[in-house]
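Researcher: I'm comparing several assemblies side by side, and this is the next one on my list. It has 350 residues spread over two chains. Same procedure as the others: predict the full complex and return the structure.
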Amino acid sequence: MKAICLASAMTIVLLVLVTFCFRFYPSAHRARQMLFVYLFCLAVLVALWFATPDDLGLLRRSLLTEPAWLDFAATLFFFSAAFFGGALQLYNLCDRGFSLRILVDMLEAPTGAVDVDYLTANYSSGRGLVWMYRKRIDDIIATRFIDQVNKRIVLTAKGEMFADLFINARRVLGLELPQ
Amino acid sequence: MTSSPALVALAAAAVWFVVFFFAHIGGVRAGFENARWLLISYAACVLGTLVTAIVLTAWSNGMQTIVLAATMAALTSACLFALYVPALYTVLTSLSVQTMMLLRRRGGALPEAELYDRFASRKIMEQRLATLLASGYVAPKGPSYRLTPRGRAIAKFFRLIKILWNLGPGG
């Protein structure tokens, strides 16, 4: 139970710190900023785990996780999953989610119902779909999966490796591949 | 020899998650609608996880230990699910990933204009609206679309997070 208590408390601290950083120290690389906050919180969590008694001064003996190494591993796993599967995904959805942005655009539209042309032209508060795709191309160029050569987009060796991984994943799921 | 209830709980969660993983893949391959099947198969496996953890710890432990094992098992399962779903949807819907797969299948290079025609066009908007329609987030209204109460609630929640985190429109 110590693992659950500490990991939950530290996840709340992480969310507060991320909110603080995003509001008062805005950065162009927010995912990286979140990762630094996670690493800081992880270090504090490890220190806290070793500094506190097994029962946290309040848990009954029957609620203690044994052996102790398992409690430590569970603490790290719960906290890391809360970050990579929770906080970071929440950020990704908010900042990059295509479907979600369509829903927000519909919510902010001056009329109750909108058509495909309106959404295409006014995607992301009027930026449009070309901006959306440019952002994605720029991001995968920055991560060196692709390169831009004379108005052509070229897959790098690293990009080929990851593309093969995704193609195999879609094959395992029995899904169509892009043609 | 007595096993640690926490270890039993974690092992039960891990084994049932493997069962879920293969059940989910099998269902998608068999043509089940992904989102619905994902939830059904996961719910069944969470139930299996809880029953296994409770039954295996109930033999030689008191109620509090059983609660600990059940909580550990449920939380471990939820964490595994939270890590699995984003990875799955990256493969299923990410435009960046689709771009890379298309490039790979077309010899590793394509004109930029061709990619924009495909991924920044009216057609991609139509496809995504069809997905949102099937998921019940939007509803048709003549030739247009409107948000359903569920879609409105989701949009309002995420707009609130965007404001809280000072994110700008994004997308």
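Model: For your comparison table: Residues 63-93 of chain B form the longest helix (31 residues).
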